[in-house]
């Protein structure tokens, strides 16, 4: 019985330690508001104060069918996407829910998507953001293996769908 209780205690400590590093909310003194910081996921964006912009933008966005089918989906599904965003940034608040809507539309595997939330100084300790040369957010980076295929920076040149098709190929 003692071993079961000890094992359970270790599990809780491990789970709690890991959960603190994911969807972490901090107070940003520059924007004077709470922001997501570090690694996060859809659950972090769609909850609490962040849902006030994530959900309406996600629900209202209409996927561009004329461009979505020009994306090489077989190739896209082998890619990894890293998104660097700021929950304080209006461009991130617009583009990231739209990106999720597109990825849901094509059934993109969420395991291939990594989100890193940064502060206004473009920092996120404990992540690889320092090595990604981020100047503007959001920055959506498409990788095939370790090779960067391209980026969408701040806002798309044409549309998210058209820019993805250009990066991924047809």
Rg measurement, Å: 18 Å
Number of strands: 6
Number of helices: 7
Strand content: 15-25%
Spatial gap, N to C terminus: 60 Å
SSE order, one letter for each helix or strand = HEEHHHHEHEEEH
Integer tally of domains = 1
CATH superfamily: Glutaredoxin
What are the salient characteristics of this protein?
170 residues; alpha+beta; 6-stranded mixed sheet; 7 helices; 22% strand
Report on the architecture of this protein:
The chain is of the alpha+beta class. The protein has one domain (22-168): Glutaredoxin. It contains seven helices and six strands, in the order αββααααβαβββα. The protein has helices at 2-20, 42-45, 51-60, 65-68, 73-76, 90-105, 160-168, and strands at 24-28, 33-40, 80-85, 113-117, 139-144, 147-153. A six-stranded mixed β-sheet has the order 1-2-4-3-5-6. Strand 3 (80-85), helix 6 (90-105) and strand 4 form a beta-alpha-beta unit. The radius of gyration is 18 Å and the shape is globular. The termini are far apart. Mean pLDDT is 90; it is low at 5-19.
Helices and strands, with pairings:
Layout: H1 2-20, E1 24-28, E2 33-40, H2 42-45, H3 51-60, H4 65-68, H5 73-76, E3 80-85, H6 90-105, E4 113-117, E5 139-144, E6 147-153, H7 160-168
Short description:
This protein has 170 residues and is of the alpha+beta class. Helices cover 39% and strands 22% of the residues. It has one domain (22-168): Glutaredoxin (3-Layer(aba) Sandwich), CATH 3.40.30.10.
């Amino acid at each position: 019985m003692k071993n079961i209780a000890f094992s359970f205690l270790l599990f809780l400590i491990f789970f709690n330690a890991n959960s603190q590093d994911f969807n972490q909310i901090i107070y940003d003194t520059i924007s004077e508001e709470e922001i997501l910081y570090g690694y996060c996921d859809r659950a972090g964006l769609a909850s609490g104060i962040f849902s006030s912009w994530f959900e309406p933008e996600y629900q209202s966005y209409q996927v561009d069918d004329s461009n979505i089918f020009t994306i090489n989906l077989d190739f896209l599904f082998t890619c990894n996407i890293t998104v660097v965003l700021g929950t304080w940034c209006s461009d991130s608040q617009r583009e990231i829910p739209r990106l999720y809507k597109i990825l849901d539309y094509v059934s993109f595997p969420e395991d291939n998507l990594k989100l890193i939330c940064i502060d206004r100084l473009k920092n996120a300790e404990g992540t690889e953001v320092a090595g990604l040369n981020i100047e503007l957010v959001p920055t959506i980076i498409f990788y095939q293996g370790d090779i960067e295929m391209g980026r969408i920076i701040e806002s798309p040149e044409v549309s998210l769908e058209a820019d993805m098709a250009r990066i991924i190929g047809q």
